[in-house]
Design a protein that fits this description.
Number of strands: 18
CATH class of the largest domain: Alpha Beta
Number of domains: 2
Shape: elongated
Strand content: 15-25%
Structural class: alpha/beta
CATH architecture of the largest domain: 4-Layer Sandwich
Distance between the termini: 75 Å
Largest sheet: 6 strands, mixed
């Protein structure tokens, strides 16, 4: 490895994704390649420890197996997000095309369009190394059966572009499932069982047609999120309606998700007084009592701002105030149960501790 550059390879185990941090050692300007949303904290901590200035967040393609950390990293560092022009992602800062160059101090990253796994695939070349995403894996390659994939295009991308690079070029893939970390162009030309020099385009098309792979588990979540720079779909179990700026759900919604309340996936917080909680209207099974005021404020100040909470009261007024307070404190998934316990009782739903 050259002494004038910095390269770190990081691993995310659920999707077997490699994330890379590359930098010019003198200027400390850096780029991160294929970050995963769940490991953003880890990656940014390392960048801080290394004293680097993050300039670019690069995705090799629109991923189907994980949500990119690009948008979250941009929000926290002001680094510019970059992805293929072919992806037509409106929120991206720099749409990239073949041959484009990105500067890191005195060094440069060169963009190589390598479509085939998807139509948005890019390889990033940096100082004798290439970061290939899913276009070229160690002794393998990405599938070609969705997101405008094409076996013919992938064969041409690898043979006409990547395999024409110097033999000693180091190959860093986007994934690995067998414990490999890197390879070289020479090794892949010789030993890649799908794309090696001994294989014809017809051989490759036949190999890929016979794979019959199941779709990635996260494809329906990941692709839409990645087309929005990694903004995940609203992850609430109950989808609220916005009423005067307050997310609201009906008693029927809460009833339909009672199993989530019992399992604590959804917290149901009753904000009435204790005498009301055990009084005329009783309370819903699984509800927790935190009276609107200091009790509730203390709970929210020390709580998990990503948990899903439904607030309830007698008629929906105080629980609406509780929802508004939680949102101001940074909670993402809080809702007001419209109609409160009055509506719940009208529906003749069971209650507890009713006197």
């Amino acid at each position: 490895m050259r002494e004038d550059v910095i390269v770190y390879q990081l691993f995310e185990s659920e999707s077997s994704t490699y994330t890379y941090i590359v930098a010019d050692k003198d200027s400390k300007e850096a780029a991160i390649i294929d970050p995963v949303l769940e490991t953003v904290d880890r990656d940014l901590k390392l960048i801080e420890e290394l004293g680097l200035k993050l300039v670019y967040v690069l995705d090799t393609h629109i991923h189907a197996d994980h949500i990119t950390g690009a948008g979250e990293i941009r929000k926290r560092t002001k680094a510019q997000t970059c992805v293929s022009l072919e992806a037509a992602v409106n929120c991206v800062d720099i749409p990239l095309k073949d041959g484009q160059e990105l500067r890191l101090g005195a060094k440069k990253i060169t963009v190589i369009a390598t479509p085939g796994h998807t139509n948005t695939c890019l390889t990033y070349a940096f100082e004798g190394m290439i970061f290939t995403g899913d276009a070229l894996l160690i002794r393998g390659c990405g599938r070609t059966d969705f997101q405008q994939g094409s076996s013919e295009k992938l064969f041409d991308s690898v043979h006409e572009k990547l395999f024409k690079l110097p033999a000693e070029t180091i190959v860093f893939p986007g994934h690995d499932y067998r414990g490999h970390t890197s390879s070289t162009i020479a090794l892949e030309k010789r030993f890649n069982p799908r794309l090696g020099e001994s294989k014809t385009k017809e051989d490759f098309k036949k190999i890929m047609a016979e794979l019959k792979l199941a779709n990635p588990k996260k494809i329906h979540e990941a692709v839409p999120a990645n087309l929005a720079c990694g903004k995940p779909k609203d992850s609430r179990s109950i989808q609220p309606q916005n009423v005067d700026g307050i997310p609201e759900v009906t008693c029927e919604d809460v009833l339909a998700h009672a199993h989530h309340i019992e399992s604590k996936k959804i917290r149901l917080i009753d904000v009435r007084r204790l005498d009301e909680f055990d009084g005329e209207y009783g309370h819903i099974k699984g509800a927790e009592l935190f009276t609107l005021g200091p009790d509730l404020t203390n709970l929210l100040a020390n709580g998990n701002k990503s948990e899903e909470i439904v607030f309830v009261c007698r008629s929906g007024g105080r629980s609406g105030s509780a929802t508004a307070e939680s949102i101001k404190l940074g909670y993402k998934y809080t809702m007001n149960m419209a109609g409160g316990m009055i509506r719940w009782t009208e529906l003749q739903q069971p209650v507890q501790n009713r006197k």
